[in-house]
């Protein structure tokens, strides 16, 4: 059975079993390797993508549950042109970089709904994303900076 959905605006199909984690379809079938495997238990946030605009953990989201949906991966932000990416560089957020795709996608979900987030809003939206390097204060500053850029645009 073929499952149909969109990824980054393009129609795709998957012949995977319906209970296959979306993460593996994104990475192995579609070749979009920006989304990372971290813990496999939806605890670290490295695998965060958007499904119909909501941030979800793709390691625990079954591909059968996204049939007919719109999925966005970190690749949907472009290659350095998004306000979040610019702010990430400006504030030197990445250290090892492994968590960054999930961090960016959680931040993008927040900013799509809240163009002027408070520290508490940012902390709540980013709470499920673990950064082993501990760059949380830089992440918060970058989200605020990106929000300001988006408001000014």
Query: What summary fits the major beta sheet?
Result: 5 strands, mixed
Output the radius of gyration.
15 Å
* Distance linking N and C termini: 44 Å
- Extended strand count: 5
- Structural class of the helices, strands and pairings? alpha+beta
**So, CATH architecture of the largest domain?**
Orthogonal Bundle
Beta-strand percentage?
Answer: 5-15%
- What is the element string, with H for helices and E for strands? EEHEEEHHHH
How much is the average pLDDT?
96
The geometry reads as globular
The domain tally reads 2
CATH topology of the largest domain: DNA polymerase, domain 1
Number of helices: 5
Percent of residues in helices comes to 25-40%
Which CATH top level class of the largest domain fits? Mainly Alpha
Given as residue ranges, the uncertain stretches (5+ residues, pLDDT < 50) are none
Please identify which CATH superfamily of the largest domain we are dealing with.
[2Fe-2S]-binding domain
Strand adjacency order, main sheet: 2-1-5-3-4
Topology (elements, then pairings):
Elements lengths: L2 E5 L2 E5 L7 H8 L18 E4 L2 E4 L12 E3 L10 H8 L9 H14 L5 H8 L9 H17 L1
Compact summary:
The chain has 153 residues and is an alpha+beta fold. It has helices at residues 22-29, 83-90, 100-113, 119-126, 136-152; strands spanning 3-7, 10-14, 48-51, 54-57, 70-72.
Description:
The protein has 153 residues and is α+β, with helices and mostly antiparallel strands. It has 5 helices and 5 strands. The protein starts with a strand and ends with a helix.
Which key terms come to mind for this protein?
153 residues, alpha+beta, Ubiquitin-like (UB roll), 2 domains, five-stranded mixed beta sheet, 5 strands
